[in-house]
Write a structure and sequence with these properties.
The complex is a heterotetramer, with two copies of chain A (554 residues) and two copies of chain B (283 residues). Chain A is built from 18 helices and 21 strands. With 554 residues, chain A is α/β, with parallel strands linked by helices. Chain A is globular, with a radius of gyration of 25 Å. Helix content of chain B is 32%, strand content 17%. Chain B has ten helices and ten strands. An eight-stranded mixed beta sheet of chain B has the order 2-1-3-4-8-7-10-9, with helices on both faces. In chain B, strands 5-6 form a two-stranded antiparallel sheet. In chain B, strand 5 and strand 6 form a beta hairpin. The chains are: A alpha/beta (554), B alpha/beta (283). The structure holds thiamine diphosphate (TPP) (2 copies), iron/sulfur cluster (SF4) (2 copies) and magnesium ion (2 copies).
Chain lengths: 554, 283, 554, 283
């Protein structure tokens, strides 16, 4: 596996260069994984991406760089300390650096000769690929997909010029990923939603969730669905509830601040028993925080948001394939139990790209309730043996369909009596018990019988996978990691089992307070022995987990 | 009307409340439009007015305070075969829900929005609503309301609404006709309904309104936006009721590339082949 | 202690009758406690109040009635089963009932003779007071305070007529409460706020919090403060924050639904370090729920509301005196630590009235920070040894004052670097540790070394106090109760101590899931053995707690 | 101006952005009004425009997206000695913050509200804002925006604002004068500022606006509300800039029984004797 950093100012073409790189690496068979480190601004500042590639698709970034593509001087200054001794720095010849690893090229010169300095990135990408002994055959096709027709030829030439400018240095890696997709976590989630039958998406722009809205909008005409930018997040969630009530599979997405505004309507979905999928793409808080960076600090908020008590499910997304699969599952669980299901993602996963096999959307199982005939007049909130009231939609001739935010009777009419209240509460809360049968245990990574058990959730999957691999390779002890996807209700079978056998339990989280560890203590009584926490908006790498574990003495 | 297809139920309103006539007018309007109750979706927020959807035999959505419009618009978006009608209060629609009011006018989904305008928050016992007159004394506005009253019809016209009317609960026949027109109108249609609250508004009573309201006559040109705005500013000794402004403009559905051909999203599934094509674009 | 129920339709004068009763009982020296059972409507329906009085001020209601004042027939049907055999039912002679305890009177007849049927309630009150051998000397003064001048005479006469219509039946109780206040929990809270220096209150009406807004508005002119009805709850909380930032002690109040809308701004208070007191008067959820009834189901919501992590404090109010005292404390803690402090009340306390000694507002300690000179230019978010940055207000000549919802540096300017982020997070979260030194342990009721320990919070104080009294009177075991006021951060010293000595721990809560018990498990690892929960919108009485404890076998 | 009392700082805006001129105009306006920076409170929400308060040496409050107005109004309420100015975006002020926009006009607290109107959500990369033209194509409005554009000046006049102006970032001197008038105006004053976003709005550019804007001249009667509404509807080939409407009306403070005498609540304590009196009323 190799690690390449591409850095420059916002607007300098870091993204274009990375896209080209990714596409050509994939075309050469590599599994690719990229994380994006962005500043909250449109131009200027310093942005960089870490592109990692190898035979298998990596699931996390690494701190040890094999190469740097520096579109400006700052990039070298900021990142050279992570470059391996044998690594390289591709930069324009004008850049002043005393680093012996630098390979100054006429990036600008070549690009300008070809017509525009904007092609400089392509020159660098060509050179980098040559250094990694990777062919660039598919270049034209790649540019045809990503660029305006007029720019294709120039960039192909720039890429080729870069390719010719250096000699191969690293052994070629590759695999069988050429036929896979390459996509961000947000797109994987969006595809899952479409496969699950999404008909209505409403949202208000907010980093890092906006690309779900934008992607769905861009395909809405093809798919024949409605994608609506709402006037605010409150409208977005209430629209999604209205759409779902009327019979369309509906979703709404945002980040923490927008979710805060959806809290009341979250309860409406629970009370009115209207299925709803909500996405929270986490970023560092509180409030505006660090808008374009990553964190896992909304867990407890998701579990207890909104006044009163009602059943809900919270699923943390671990990686790209998980995002696709869990989104489909979220729609089915929301519909089956008529509850809100929250998908908890974060910037690391949402903006990060990875290669991933093309799933078969026709095989996506779509929950379809039996059409129960209305006995004696349809009652939306009928007390049934199963605990679930059959759903119908406005327009049915079987009766009238209602939704009510007040406490209500079976027909959805306001009540205040104690008996009906208790029955309705029991009916709703009973669904939490039913949900428990649907829970997926966390994924166990590393050793089957770990002595040291790491516990994490969501997008730390990749870094934890890497960490236990590195740790077990050392062979000093048996390390394992449990990475939770379902976080509420909390599955506890595997945790109890593995915790019982481990000598140390360590939670690893991207937050200050160790929220999963707290939840585990509340739900199971199990205490962790130490925690590795990070809350500066940058994701832990596998290497950092290992390092800090050592510091903690495990 | 004895052969009505719509039943109404016992209410929790105070005896003498202006809401009763509104319920009657609505029932009659729906009957005269020969709508099947199963195709009608009544939407409300929270408040006295917003209970109306609970009191008539149709589909109903009783959501959150201030949030009646977004689910109503969405319901219509996903199933245009439904007749979607909002009945809610002035606090609900213009106060807590003010942002949705403005922006759904701009969205122009084909729904009718009937606002029971009693100038108070009835269900919470009489505080000033946005339409309260300056100087109104309430348990919160102890020295009288200081705020410039919200003029819903003027605001609606300014925001671009295509159908803007004012009705009066004390003129149920006239109100019924307004409701019919609003429901028939293609696009967002507003009827602000003057509704005496006998418990908390001792100023703007049936008598007070009866002395002031007058019906716009045939001469009135409801198509002139500038004139309509001027007319909308008339609220004092004389209060015009009727359709203040009407002008068809493309609805949300008519302009929407997906929906313009009558696509119903409710109950629909996606074609996996199309999803696969999207995936292949990422290869 | 006696228990009297007054019932009728909304609009029939239940409230007026109760106010008169309360005032005259207090004038006679009684301690009085009233709970209100209201329907969410303006007229009609069935409302009733339970008036309890005795030598000491009761802190909870009782289910065993000594008398009923029935302003309509329904009241008898609904409540007669709770009437003691020796109890009475005062009703109009027109009311048909076969209950031998009924004392039919010409309530309407006498009232109409005096001028208006509306005085019927006063006739009944007069009769009831006579039955309890309570004098009615202060009647005129009472009516003069509560009624329009024209109605005073009539009601005095009505009361006297009722008084003459029956003979004393119960032994007089009384005490030394004549000089005390009688007020609702919401008013006690509002007085606390005023004593603490409240200058700005913004809110949007919502039951059961509205009376805070109304009371403060009614005294705003006298006090010279600003009380603003906002366009929505989001505006209310953001106004309060703006006012506090500018230097005014500020508060905002609502119930759960409104709180949901304030969640984002709660985080702003935490991030921008702007002191804020927020009141959540709980009612049964989810969403609209049962608007005029009681519940304790927002606890976990309060603790984890808003994205990201920041310090906050949550204080549950237990009774009227507590409401006054804790509100003052909330303002001081909010200001000292520059954090949001949430006061968690509920309908039972908020709408319930009690007698309470007049506190001395001049003795209310008001936290006043030292005026630290700005060294080298004022920096709002200065890193200091104490962990607290000196606050100044816009307008100071010492420099510029800023507030920022983005992560920021000492001067409040947006930053994105890792180092500053970490220092700022540590600075803010460090305040949680400082807060722990301020915590008040829960109050221990009953036995000092309980074998069976009940655990509750907030307004269950009264019912729990009654329950342990009843239980200990039986003498079968030693019972105690710990009633939490401070719930976040959670004080745990006394709990650990008493839990260690108890054979059984039982949580008693007005919710479905046992939220305090969960929190205790999370924070201390201590598990309860059983729970007594109620979620029908009606408060547990001491008697019901005892009964259900027996059912559970304790 | 070299002897300015206001410093400005390095920004995170794109080179060429319309925001720079706005910052300059503001700085010059504040200087010409001879304000002490310590008495100025700059308030913003979240967005590119909303970063402005961070870029000038004054007190600043950078709150939540869409929520600039409520804290600004409250700050002025508790300390009227401050000059309170909001700079924020069109998405912030009219979209997320639409309800506060409407209702704070009604409240009429003496603050100035400067809205950088670039017809897009800049910071989130170019989606349509409420003021976007019909048909604007963006990453979300892929088939072009369907919504009726929000007309801020018309809406403000309809809502009852006493000072409503439109400026253009490409006419900084003119803009500066508008800002000065707005700040001096007693009551809520709105200046909607046409602000080209060079990164995301490729239609409404400096050139586009320069060809269209014209300054209202001396003849124009800014006191005629009906005419002002008509004028406000002019937005196309010709776009008027200047003060569209101006009419003093009682401010919040002037009407408020507590505040009208200059009461400053900031830093104030309550008299315990008064609290005691309230308590005794409950005895
Ligand atoms: C989020 C939220 N805030 C406040 C309330 C309390 N509330 C219920 S009804 C109402 C006002 C109703 O006034 P209006 O809409 O004018 O209806 P009316 O009762 O006058 O018909 C309020 C403030 C609520 N239910 N939810
Ligand atoms: C509650 C919330 N929703 C969404 C966002 C994301 N957001 C940040 S800035 C912005 C739009 C800014 O647009 P505008 O106000 O027009 O300012 P501009 O950047 O164009 O100057 C949005 C949607 C947020 N920060 N908070
Ligand atoms: S309070 Fe007013 S609006 Fe509500 S039902 Fe009674 S009279 Fe009607
Ligand atoms: S994105 Fe647009 S508004 Fe924002 S700084 Fe760049 S040019 Fe200006
Ligand atoms: Mg109303
Ligand atoms: Mg903008």
């Amino acid at each position: 596996m190799y690690n390449l950093l591409v850095g420059g100012a916002a607007g300098q073409g870091v993204d274009t260069a990375v896209n080209t790189l990714e596409a050509l690496l994939k075309a050469a068979g590599c599994g690719v994984f990229t994380v994006r480190d962005l500043m909250s601004r449109i131009r200027g500042g310093h942005n960089f991406s870490l592109v990692r590639f190898g035979e298998e698709t990596p699931r996390s970034h690494s701190e040890r760089l094999d190469g740097i593509i520096a579109l400006n001087e700052e990039t070298i200054a900021l990142h050279r300390d992570k470059l391996k001794p044998e690594g390289f720095i591709l930069c324009d010849e004008s850049v002043k650096t005393d680093d012996s690893r630098a390979i100054p090229l006429k990036l600008q010169g070549i690009a300008k000769l070809l017509g525009s300095g904007r092609a400089a990135g392509s020159v660098a990408v060509g050179a980098a690929l040559r250094l990694f002994s990777t062919p660039i055959d598919g270049a034209r096709r790649v540019f045809e997909k990503s660029l305006k027709p007029g720019l294709v030829e120039m960039n192909v030439k720039a890429l080729e010029a870069g390719y010719r400018a250096v000699e191969p240095r690293f052994e070629r890696v590759g695999g069988s990923h050429a036929g896979e997709m390459i996509l961000t976590g947000n797109k994987a989630l969006a595809l899952g939603a479409l496969a699950a039958g999404l008909q209505f998406y409403a949202a208000y722009p907010m980093s890092p969730s906006t690309s779900i809205l934008e992607y769905l909008a861009s395909v809405s005409l093809k798919m024949g669905i409605a994608v609506e930018q709402a006037e605010d997040e409150i409208a977005a969630v209430n629209m999604a509830i209205g759409a779902s009530f009327t019979g369309a599979r509906a979703m709404t997405g945002t980040s923490g601040g927008g979710f805060s505004l959806k809290v009341e309507a979250l309860g409406l979905s629970g009370m009115a028993e209207v299925p709803l999928v909500l996405v929270d793409v986490q970023r560092p808080g509180p409030v505006t925080g660090l808008p374009t960076r990553t964190e896992q600090s909304d867990l407890k908020f998701m579990i207890s948001a909104s006044q009163g008590e009602f059943p809900r499910m919270v699923i943390a997304l671990r990686h790209h394939e998980d995002a696709y699969r869990q989104t489909i599952r979220a729609f089915n669980l929301a519909e089956k139990y008529q509850i809100p299901v929250i998908l908890l993602s974060d910037q690391y996963l949402a903006d990060g790209t990875a290669t991933m096999p093309v799933p078969d959307p026709a095989k996506a199982e779509i929950y379809a309730p039996e059409d129960v005939p209305a006995e004696g007049g349809y009652a939306r909130y009928r007390f049934t043996e199963s605990g679930i009231s059959p759903r119908k939609f406005p327009g049915t001739r079987d009766g009238f369909v209602s939704a009510d935010s007040d406490e209500h009777d079976e027909y959805g009419k306001i009540i205040e009596d104690s008996e009906t209240r208790i029955r309705m509460m029991n009916k709703r809360m009973g669904k939490l018990e039913l949900l428990k049968r649907e829970l997926e245990e966390p994924q166990l990574l590393g050793d089957e019988r770990p002595e040291v058990l790491l516990i994490g959730w969501g997008s730390l999957y990749g870094p934890l996978e890497e960490a236990v691999r590195l740790l077990n390779a050392e062979g000093k002890a048996r390390y394992g990691a449990l990475v939770f996807g379902d976080v509420w209700p909390l599955p506890d079978r595997l945790l109890r089992e593995k915790a019982a056998g481990a000598r140390a339990l360590i939670h690893v989280e991207q937050n200050y307070t160790g929220q999963l560890a707290q939840l585990i203590r509340e739900q199971t009584g199990i205490r962790t022995d130490a925690g590795i926490l990070k809350y500066d908006g940058r994701q832990l790498s596998g290497e950092e987990i290992v390092r800090r574990l050592r510091e903690e003495g495990y | 009307m004895s052969d009505s297809r719509f039943e109404t139920f016992e209410t929790a309103w105070c005896p003498g409340c202006g809401n009763f006539n509104i319920l009657d007018s609505l029932k009659n309007a729906l009957d005269e439009l020969a709508l099947d109750p199963h195709d009608v979706l009544m939407v409300g927020g929270i408040g006295q007015a917003a209970k109306l959807p609970q009191y008539i035999s149709a589909n109903s959505f009783s959501g959150l305070h201030g949030r009646a419009v977004p689910p109503a618009a969405a319901a219509k978006i996903v199933n245009p075969a439904l007749t979607v009608i909002i009945n809610s209060g002035d606090g609900d629609s213009y106060g807590e829900g003010g942002n949705h009011f403005i922006h759904n006018i701009r969205r122009n989904v084909d729904i009718a929005h009937f606002i029971h305008d009693n100038q108070v928050y009835g269900l919470t016992k009489g505080q000033a609503s946005p339409t309260a007159d300056k100087g109104s004394v309430t348990p919160v506005q102890v020295e009288g309301s200081l705020n410039i009253p919200f003029n819903p019809v003027l605001m609606a016209i300014a925001a671009g609404a295509g159908f803007v009317a004012r009705g009066f609960s004390g003129r149920p026949e006239h109100l019924k006709e307004l409701m019919k027109q609003a429901i028939r109108f293609k696009g967002y249609a507003l009827v602000d309904i003057l509704q005496p609250c006998v418990s908390f508004n001792k100023v703007n009573t049936f008598a007070w309104y009866s002395q002031r309201v007058y019906e716009l006559d045939k001469e009135y040109d409801r198509g002139d936006r500038a004139a309509a705005m001027l007319k909308s500013m008339e609220f004092g000794d004389r209060i015009p009721i009727g359709v203040l402004y009407q002008e068809e403009q493309p609805t949300f559905h008519e302009q929407h590339e997906v929906l313009k051909n009558g696509q119903i999203l409710a109950g629909r599934k996606n074609d996996p082949e199309l999803v696969r094509e999207l995936m292949l674009e990422m290869v």
